[in-house]
Amino acid sequence: MTDYYRSFSLVQADLRAGTITCRQLVDGYLARIEENRHLNVFTEVYAEEARQRADDLDRRWAANEPVGRLAGMVIGLKDVLSHAGHGLQAGSHMLDGFVAQFTATAVQRLLDEDAIVIGRQNCDEFAMGSSNETSAFGPVRNAADPTRVPGGSSGGSAVAVQAGLCLASIGSDTGGSVRQPAAFCGVTGLKPTYGRISRWGLIAYASSFDCVGPIAHTPADCALLLEIMAGPDEFDSTVSNRPVEAYSAATQMASAPRRIAYLRDGVESPGVDASIREATQRTIDALRAAGHTVEPVSLSLLDSLLPTYYILTTAEASSNLSRFDGVRYGHRTAEATDLIELYKKSRTEGFGSEVRRRILLGTFALSASYYDAYYTKAQQVRRLIREETERLFAEYDFLLSPTTPSPAFKLGEKTGRNPDDDPLQMYLADIFTVQANVVGYPAISIPNGATPEGLPIGLQLMASPFAEASLVAIAQEITDL
User: Fold this and answer.
1) CA distance 231 to 50
2) Which of the residues 216, 293, 453, 473 has an alpha carbon 20 to 30 A from that of 56?
3) Is 322 an annotated catalytic residue?
C-alpha cells in the first residue's frame, strides 16, 4: 500500500474488485506504523491478531460467505477502551501490566461487524489533558509538524488516522477529547449525544460527561461507526433506548436549507487565531451561498463554560479514581509501612502530575467546607447553560464555531511544568468544545483548511439531542463544498 485510504467506501470498492485483500491492507498499515514510530501513536500493536482476522475475512470473501458491514475497516482503540485479553492502561503507570477482562460494548459491536483492531493508541493519562503530553508513554506528535501537539486526550487516535496508520479510531470525549485532536490533525471527530453509545468498558473520567466517539477522515465513516456502536445496552443504565437511525444513509442525502447560528466570538474575538477566524468566515459565506440561513449569536454564559466544566469533571474524577488505592485496583507501592502510607505512596507513584492536580481540585470542590460554594453552584450553572442552549436550538438547527481558538501549539508550550507557565492556558484550548459535554448534545469537528504554516484548522457543528442524522448530513455537505 504505497498510499493510504481516506474513505471506507474506497476500501470496499477495491476489496470487491479484487485489487486488494484484507491481508494486504493490514500489512500496509503495519508498515506505516513501523515507519512512523517517532509519532509515538500506538502503545501496543496487535500485528499477528490483525493478520489472522484479515486472512479469515479473505477466506470468507473468496468462499462467498457472509461478512460484516465493517469487513476491511482497520481501526485502532484509545487506551481507555476495554478489549478482553489485551492490555489496558489509560496511559498511566497506575495500570502497568493490567489486562482487560471483558470487551467494551462499543468495541464488541465493531468486532461483530468484522472490523479489524490493529492496536491500542496513546492518550493523555486517564483521558485528562488537551495535548497528549500527560501520558506515561510520552507525548504523541502531530504528523503535520512533529514539534507540535496532536491535541488530547485522544491525540494518538487522531494522529493514527491523520498519518494513515489505520482507517478509523475510537476515542472518548469528555470535554472535546475527540473533536479537539481531530481539529489539530485535520480529520473528522464525532461526539454523539450523551447516552447514545454505551460507556460499558470505558474507563471513567467524568461519568456524566464521558462519550465514546469515532475519528475518521469523513463524516460518512464516522456516521457508519456511530450507527453500529449506538443503541441500548443492558450493562449501561445511562444509555438511551431510542431507536438507532440510519446515520450512514443520511450523509448521502441532500440537506434541506437549514437555520444555522454561528458563535460571534468564534469569528470576531481577537483571542481566536486570525487564520481560524478567516477560515470560519469563509465557511459561513459558503453556507449562505448554498441557501442556508446563517446568523450570529452570543452565549451569555460563555465565560462560565470552562469553570463549570472543570469543577464538575474534577469532582467526578476524584470520585471515580478513588478506587485506585493500592488495595483494590492499580499500582501498589513496595515501600509502605502502614495503611495511610500505602494509599499515599501508591497513588503518588501511580498517577502523573495532571491527574493528581485534578484529583486534588475535585476533592477540594467536594469537601464539606466548599461543596455548596463550588460543586452545588457549578451544577446550578450547568442547568442555566442547558436552558440557554435549549432556547438557542428552539430557533436554530445547528450552532457553528471554530473547534479550537488556535492551531496545534508547540510541545511543552502549555504544560504548566515551568515556574512561569500558567496551566490554565492549556484548559482554554477546550473553550468551544466543552459546551456540548456540559449539556449532553452531539457535536462534530470537520477539517476547515489550514493556516499559512500548513497546520490544520477545524470547524465544529453542534446539534440538538439525538439529531446525529442531520448533524452528519450537514457535516458531509460542508466537507463536499
Assistant:
1) 27
2) 216
3) no
CA 315 – CA 362 distance, rounded (Å):
4
Report the C-alpha gap between 478 and 481 in whole angstroms.
Answer: 5
Beta bridge partner(s), residue 260: 294, 398
- Looking at residue 416, its pLDDT comes to 60
Name the CA dihedral angle for 65, 70, 76, 82, rounded to a multiple of 10 degrees: -80
**Nearest-angstrom CA–CA distance, 115 and 83:** 13
Burial class (CB in 10 A: 0-12, 13-18, 19+), 208: middle
Q: Is position 445 annotated as part of the catalytic site?
A: no
pLDDT at 96: 96
Q: What is the pLDDT of residue 92?
A: 98
Burial code of 153-187, b = ≥16 C-beta within 10 A, e = fewer? bbbbbbbbbbbbbbbbbbbbbbbbbbbbbbbbbbb
Q: What's the sign of the alpha-carbon dihedral 141, 142, 143, 148?
A: negative
> Looking at 154, 157, 177, 255, which residue is catalytic?
177
Q: Which is nearest to 404 in space by CA: 307, 280, 311, 240?
A: 280
pTM: 0.96
- Cα 420 to chain centroid distance, Å, stands at 30
456-463 and 398-402 strand pairing:
antiparallel
All residues at 6 or more sequence positions from 360 whose CB lies less than 8 Å from its CB, including other chains: none
Q: What is the pLDDT of residue 253?
A: 85
Asked if 260 and 222 touch (Cβ cutoff 8 Å), the reply is: no
Question: Is 345 known to be catalytic?
Answer: no
Helices (H), 95-218: 105-112, 155-162, 179-185
Which pLDDT score is estimated for 1? 46
Show the low-confidence residues of the chain (pLDDT under 50).
1-2
Q: Which three cell numbers stand for residue 256?
A: 434541506
The two beta strands, 398-402 and 259-263, are parallel
DSSP string, 187-240: SEEEE--TTSB--TTBPPSSTTT-EEEEEESSHHHHHHHHHHHBS--TT-TTS-
Give residue 244's pLDDT.
97
Secondary structure of 311-346 as H, E, C letters: HHHHHHHHHHHHHCCCCCCCCCCCCCCCHHHHHHHH
Question: What is the model's pLDDT at position 433?
Answer: 97
Sheet arrangement for strand 456-463: 42-45, 116-121, 74-78, 168-173, 211-216, 188-191, 443-450, 456-463, 398-402, 259-263, 293-297
Catalytic residue among 78, 191, 345, 414: 78
Of the residues 153, 172, 248, 464, which is catalytic? Answer: 153
